[in-house]
Every structure is written in structure tokens, then in C-alpha cells.
Amino acid sequence: MAEPTPPSWVRVWRGSSQGGEFLDYKVPGEPGMVVLDALLYIQANYAPDLAIRWNCKAAHCGSCSAEINGKPRLTCKTRLSEFEGQIITVAPMRAFPIIKDLVTDVKWNYEVLKKIPPFQPQPDAKEPWTIYQRDIERAQEFHRCIECFLCQDVCHVLRTHRKMAEFAGPRFLIKLAALEMHPLDTGQRLEFIKDAAGIGYCNITKCCTEVCPEQITITDNAIIPLKERVADEFYDPLRWLLRKLRG
Prior knowledge:
By secondary structure, the protein is of the alpha+beta class. It has ten helices and seven strands. It has helices at 35-45, 107-115, 133-140, 150-154, 156-159, 170-180, 190-194, 207-211, 218-235, 237-246; strands at residues 8-16, 19-27, 65-68, 71-74, 88-91, 98-100, 103-104. β1 and β2 form a beta hairpin. The longest helix is centred in the C-terminal third of the chain and has 18 residues, at 218-235.
């Protein structure tokens, strides 16, 4: 018979935008148990008023985002066994306003989404569209995003410097990259990417890529190519001269 798994101590932040504190709870150790299981156990046995956000429990909906031992992660994808012998600390995402306990107000992200210029297909493109497989694969990974906003939370531009008015964040830079790389798109977004999306604020720390549960290569495959396009368009001296000549 296998040895029973020892119980775990989970430290959960409790409070609201007005303030709060961390409280410790003892949860049973069960094989395969994830942090979300522990939170639901706490809710069922100790604190029925514990506010958490979750839906699918399969790492597909992106609802259960939190900071586990200081790192933005999905609670449904993080096993307790990773922290054997440690106190597991669960806190709300710091980049967004707290509503209650582990639930944060992420509506700012959807306001950013409304501002992104939409897909504009070629006017003479006949359906069904014919697209080369290499063009599909180039942007396919960006469509795996589940909008957990962990990349937004870990980004120091948003998390530390609070540049919400100037910077769209990694999630929406990959949205813009997917549009820019679509072979049938005719939209002109480079000025938006430079100014409204504030791509110049990103200094390529790759922290967003590190926390992405879908393993999207955000920095190398989306942000850097966009930076290169913006640099070519607005900072290339020959293009600047041509714009000057054309008025």
C-alpha cells in the first residue's frame, strides 16, 4: 500500500480593494491534487465566502489565474506536489484591481481589445480563401491564447509601472501580430502598434513567454517581429526621406 500523502498548508489572501491579509488553511494531501482543488476544499470546509474564479478546471478557459508563491499561474494546472514541504501561498493577480479575495477586475483588457483595428480582408478576395500552409502556421500559435491574462499580470510595464493608458500588453500584441501576419489582411496598424499599443515600452524580458500556459512564444514570434516592422516603418532613414518627399 502506498504511503499516504501528507497534508499541505495553503496560505490564501483574503480581503478586498480596501485591504486584507493572508490566512492559513490545512488541506488533505491527495494524489494529483491541484491548487484549485485545495481552494475548493477550503471553500467547502473552512471559508464558504472565499471568492475564486474558475470554470473548466482543464486549463482551457483561463479563469482561475492567480499568483502561486509569487508566480502568475493557473490554479487548475499547478499540482500541490510541486511544493512538497512548503507553504503554498495563493494571491490575486497584482496587475489588476482586487474585487474580493482571489478575484480581480480584468475588464480593462476588454477595453483594449475594442480599440484594435479589426481584420480587413482584400476586397477582391474570393471565398473560400486559399492560404498557403506556411502562412497559416506562422500565426496559428497566437490563436491558442485562452485570455488568462497571466502574461499581462507578469509584465512589469503593467504590473509595476501601471502603464495601462500607454501599453496594450503581451496578450494584445500577439492579437495584433496574428492580424499583421495574415496573408489576406490589408489593415494598416503599425502606427497603432507604435503609439496606442505602445510597443516601445516592451524591453524583451520574455517573462510573458515564461508564464504562458499555452506555451506561446510571445516575445520571439510576435513582439520582436512587430518591433522590427515598426522600426522599419518609422525609424528607417530612407523611408523617412520618402515620406518627407511625399509630404
